[in-house]
Amino acid sequence: MAPTVENEWKKGSAELLILSLLENQPRHGYDIAGLIETRSQGTLHFHVASLYPLLYRLEKRGWIQGRWVEKPDQRRRRYYRLTAEGQRVLALQRRKWQEFAGAVSRIAGVENA
Amino acid sequence: MLEWKHEIAKRLEGTNLRAEREAEIIEEISSHLQDRYHQLRAEGATDEEACREVAVELDSTDLQAEVRDTENTVSQDPSPAGAATTGQWISDFLQDLRYAGRILRKSPGFAAVAVLTLALGIGANTAVFTIIDTLLLNPLPVEKISELLALNTTQAKMTAPSGELQPMSFLNVKDFRERTRSFGSLAAHSNPMAITMTDGAEPHRIFVEIVTANYFDVLGIHPFMGRFFHSSEDTTPGAAAVVVLGYTAWQGRFGGSSDILGRTIKLNNTLCTIIGIGPKGFKGLYAVFGPDVWVPSMMAEQILPAQQRHALSDRAIPLFTGVGRLRPGHSLAQARTEMNIVAAALEKEYADTDQGQAVTLRPLTEAAYGPERQPLFFGSVLLMAIVGLVLLIACSNVANLLLSRAAVRRQEVAVRMALGAGRSRLMRQLLTECVLLGLLGGVLGLLFGYGGCRFLWSFRPAEYAQNLADLRINASVFGFAFAVSVLTGLIFGIVPALRFSRTSVSEVLKEETRNVGRSRGCISLANTLLAGQVAISLVLLVVAALFLRSIQHEYTIDPGFETKHLALFMLYPGQVGYDRARTEQFYKQARDRIGSVPGISSVSWASNLPLWGRKETGALIEGQEQRKKSEAISAVVNTVDSNYFSTLGIPFLEGRDFTQDDRDISTRVAIINDTMAAKYWPNQDPLGKRLQLPRGKEFLQIVGVVKTTNYQTLGETPQACIYISLRQNYSDGMILYVRTERDPSTILAAVQGEIRGLDPAVPMEDMRTGTKVIDQALWWSKIGVGLLGVFGLLALGLASVGLYGIMAYSVNQRRREIGVRMALGAGQGEVSLFILRQGMTVVFSGIALGVVLALLLGRALSRFLYGVSANDPLSLGAASLVLLVVAFFACYLPARSASRMDPLVALRET
Fold first, then answer.
1. A52, A58, A65, A77, best to mutate vs chain B, most B CBs in 10 Å
2. Which comes out higher in pLDDT, residue B410 or B592?
3. Residues near B346 by Cβ (< 8 Å), separated by ≥ 6?
4. CB spacing of A53 vs B24 below 8 angstroms
5. Rounded to the nearest 10 degrees, how much is the dihedral formed by the CA atoms of B843, B845, B849, B855?
6. What is the interface pTM, i.e. ipTM, of the complex?
7. Exposed, middle or buried by CB within 10 Å (0-12, 13-18, 19+), for B363?
8. In B6, B484, B745, B845, which residue has its Cα 20 to 30 A from B44's Cα atom?
9. Tell me, which fold does domain A5-108 have in CATH?
């Protein structure tokens, strides 16, 4: 896939998106992918082949933690939750993103929505 | 939607993930894809459309690359390109190691038994290797030992095949140094010689080596402290009274004091200044026994006893061994040729002293053992073989333990294979576990080995402890222990690992998890291993028993002289500056005073310690002078006072003892033993015949013949011996022999008091009883037998534990069968008998094999045994009996517990 501007932006924001979605409750991968798609109204879509490696990377860094959960009459699923370290990173990334987005908007002359 | 799993697995190929991790990822992603598929279908897509959509999802990015990047990067560091395979391999290995650690932690009992078993085996090997490394492999801490050669004299026409090496005279060494070009430089050193050191008030006996100034340079060693000799200190006789102290002597006798340099000590009444401390671990060039101090050769006259005082100027006094470093580009053969040419020239020039002498040039590594080389070498090989067998038993025990665990592990292995773990990968994992066990055993074994060595070396005779080689635990010992540990892990791991990896996935997964016993094949493999263990244990026990019996016989050897009521004292009046007249007076006074002490029946003097006689070569018999050319006559020469023979209980066969009338001015006389008489005067009366001592100048008349005793070792083949009279042959240091009526240890103090009363300054050392002399002569043998015994018992212990473990396990596995038998009416006795019979069949076949092996091995050992045949029925019988009894109990205990089983409980369990 050719690197497009959108793809690069997506990559840059992917970590922030996932951490944000896990902020309030643990979620499994399919749930995360679905939420990104619906909340972005279809603008953002993560394929499995990039979503899961990203999750594993975050897990390795100790920002999130996965755990297999079995529920009656369901396949077991791996739920990810934010770790304390992840909380800190999320706060930091959020602030940086706001600064970044604000700066870009001010320069590019896009009205803040 | 299993095919998704397959598709994902295909895309993950080459990521080299751990099997469990890979399975997790597959499960997680396939679950996602399944959800997506169902959602698409729910939204109205056809099966085909949904599948296509999902496939696009999976292939949008390179999953393999993403996963590999994520999973295999340790922290954020990507491994450099090209190192990927090695890095992969290492990370696999670390994974395996972590996994193995977890597995072992999960079964601490198994791990403890296995590690302990291996540690015993590896410890025994390490201990023996340490001894061999110290004595044989790596004896001298000198620079480039392979370039160093030792130069000795031999008799050109030796009759004895042993080719006894002798030192050479100082002048000969000098000539070799000046006339040859093979060596960069040639140094010379004497053997360690006993002298008296006085530091403060107390005289001590220590050992000195007289060396040329370049000795340390030739060896390429550096002082631990201070300096070695300057060449200027070795040019003028008696000029430089300086001494280099050995490291051990410095530590042991001077407490390692840091202000030692510049201090003076008295060596044989000569004040010497300490100028340096030798390097740690260096104790001269004899691997086994070394000196405490070194002095320059020019001090020979001041330091040496009277007989050798002219060693620097008299070509007839052989004192030195040459040591030289080959010049680059010269070969040993060239050097030998050159030495032989010089030796031939010297033989012509100095026919008086050098006739019949040749030189021998040997690598220093060979020369380092002297005559002990062969027994040392043999002992080492034997011990190494024995501990190797002990280790084999330990390995087979652990292999059996692993096989027992097969039942539990089969499930795990099958699951991992089902998840796609390759067989080779699996074998690697299993072997990693075994190697980890081996390494843990190795660490503990190293400690055992170290402790064992310390323990063993603590049995060194205290008199010589400082002069005997120190056992060194060095890099090669660590290397050895490491190699053995890894090898051990592979050896005991390979069979179970092969067996595991041949596990058939589908069969195992179908089986019930619990109560899967060993397969029949497993049991029979275990039994084979056990029978082997029993056989090896028996062999080791038999060997230990044989040597025990041999040493028992050695103790009953009659050395030919009295030992039970004998005490001896080494006295060196010459070393405190006595002249000849005063020394002779001292000998007489001491004799008289001690002779009158109650409880002492007779007293005499002699120059030789019992069993420390040295053979001299080159004696001449009047009327048989041609013998000197065709064969050198060698004999032990001993200077003795009158009454020597009655004091030692050596019977006269003919003639008379030395008397007060044998003086300097009267006819010079000698007494010989019957071995010499029979050899050189067969069918003649030797009395009145005349002989000349090696390097002697006049003929001695034979006045008596005594019975042959042991002179050098216990039970030796009879050797010729010439006794000469103390009154006609002055010596400034002698050994006082005291014959007592009762236990000699009770009079030691009284004798000491008498001598102190004569002159407290006369150094006195080595007060010993005759029994102790024999004890010391058998020291090496005792250590050997002790080791063999310990290893034999270790083998027996390991084999019985193995036997017990296997029997207990097999009983446990067969509870159901036993329960059925009992339910059908089998009594307790029958059940016990059934189990016992099973175990003892293995034991008996092992014993049968062991007896055959022991008989074969015995042949090889027979020439090292004394007074006991290699197939000694008592040793074989006793060893078999011990093994049988121990094995019986190892089988009986599980059998008894089987017979006490409640059949109802046993049946309900399964």
1. A52
2. B592
3. B172, B175, B354, B357
4. no
5. 80
6. 0.90
7. middle
8. B6
9. Arc Repressor Mutant, subunit A (1.10.10)
pLDDT tens-digit map of B749-780: 888 888 888 888 777 766 778 888 888 777 77
Distance CA A85, CA B485 (A): 43
Q: Which DSSP symbol is given to B77?
A: B
Closest C-alpha to B364, from B528, B174, B556, B142:
B142
Interchain CB distance below 8 Å, B31 and A75: yes
- Mean pLDDT over residues B81-86, rounded? 49
DSSP A6-29: HHHHHHHHHHHHHHHHTSSS-EEH
Token pair, residue B321, equals 């061994």
| Confidence class for position B656, pLDDT limits 50, 70, 90 | very high
Q: What is the pLDDT of residue B74?
A: 40
Indicate the residue type of B613. Answer: G
> At residue B524, does pLDDT exceed 80?
no
Interface contact B32-A60, CB threshold 8 A: no
CA dihedral sign, ordered B203, B208, B210, B214: negative
**pLDDT per residue as tens digits for the range B4-21:** 888 888 888 877 788 888
Q: Nearest chain B residue to A46 by CA: give it.
A: B57
B67–A56 CB contact, under 8 Å: yes
- Cα(A110)–Cα(A3) distance, integer angstroms: 24
Q: Domain ranges in chain B?
A: 2-78, 95-139+373-516, 145-368, 566-774
- Cβ atoms A18, A32 nearer than 8 A: yes
Beta-carbon contacts below 8 Å between A and B: 56
Contact yes or no for B28 and A78 at CB 8 A = yes
Q: Where are the domains of chain A?
A: 5-108
The string of pLDDT tens digits covering residues B809-850 is: 777 777 778 888 888 888 888 888 888 888 888 889 999 999
Q: Tell me the chain B residues in contact with residue A47 when contact means C-beta distances shorter than 8 Å.
A: 57-58, 60-61
Beta bridge partners of B769: B567
| Alpha-carbon span B722 to B711, nearest angstrom | 11
